[in-house]
Each structure stands twice: as C-alpha cells, then as structure tokens.
Amino acid sequence: MSFIPPGDSPLAHPDALVLPVLTLVVTGVMYLSRLVRVAFIDTMNSEYVQTARLKGLSTRRILYRHALPNALAPVIPAASLVAAYTVGGVVVVEYLFAYPGIGAALVEAVNNRDIPVIQAIVLLIAVTYFVLNLVADIFTRGAAQSR
C-alpha cells in the first residue's frame, strides 16, 4: 500500500515524498559535495590561480573564469554516474515505498516472468545510463577545450 492514494498527484502529498527522495539523493549529494570541495581546494592552490592573484585579478573573476571550469571538470563525470545510479536506485525505492512506476513495473515483470517487458525496462535504464555518460563526456570535453 502506497502512502499516496491512487489517482492523487504525488505533489499533493509532499510529506510522503520525503523518505523516498532522501533515500535517492543523500548518498549522491554527499559524494558530489565532497568531490567539489576537494576539486576547488586543489584548483585554488594551483599555480595558474596564484598567477592570476599576482596579476591583481579580482577574486570573483578568478573564481568564475579560472577556478570553476577547472574544478568542475572531474565533477561532471562523477555527477553523471551518480545520476545513473539514482535511475537504477529508483527501482528499489519504488518497490520499498510501493509507488507505481518503472521500478514497480520491472519487479512485477520479473515476478510474472514477462521477458519482453523486463528487456524493455532494462534497455530503457541502460539507454538512460549511456545518455547521461555521453552528455557528461560532451560537457567534459567542452570544459577541457575552453581552458
């Protein structure tokens, strides 16, 4: 039994969304925030940032023009992996919280041994994973070329 009555919008019951959203988001946010912090510390201690400071550039310009693009380069692929794991984690969260969706459909198809539906859902999740990694690679290459 779901916390959200059938036919109602999930947005009409925000209290029922707290645990599922936290389940999906907390680990990814913690990992990415730590990665961003370490990347910014490394970038701010680099020689080109020190050179920009010596040239008298403003802190704002150093942060946005020099530090941010270089600090985000390692974060973008990690963010795509976190997003891909989140898409896979939706299957578990939907099953645990009894929400209808792609995860519940996959579990039901496995229970019914419905091979075409299983293949379609797994293919959809795999394509999502591929597209997220492709977009991350495109952004990473764009960030590398803009340096």
Features:
mainly alpha, elongated, 6 helices, 147 residues, single chain
Any overview of this molecule?
This protein has one domain (14-145). The chain has helices at residues 18-44, 47-54, 59-72, 75-97, 102-112, 115-145. It starts with 17 loop residues before the first helix and ends with a helix. The chain has 147 residues and is mostly helical. Helix 4 packs across helix 5 (102-112). It has six helices and no strands. Helix content is 78%, strand content 0%.
Question: Can I get a quick summary?
Answer:
The protein is mainly alpha-helical and 147 residues long.
Topology, please?
Layout: H1 18-44, H2 47-54, H3 59-72, H4 75-97, H5 102-112, H6 115-145
Count the strands?
A: 0
Count the domains: 1
What distance separates the N and C termini?
53 Å
With helices defined by DSSP (H or I, 4 residues minimum), what is the helix count? 6
Average pLDDT level = 84
- Main sheet characteristics: none
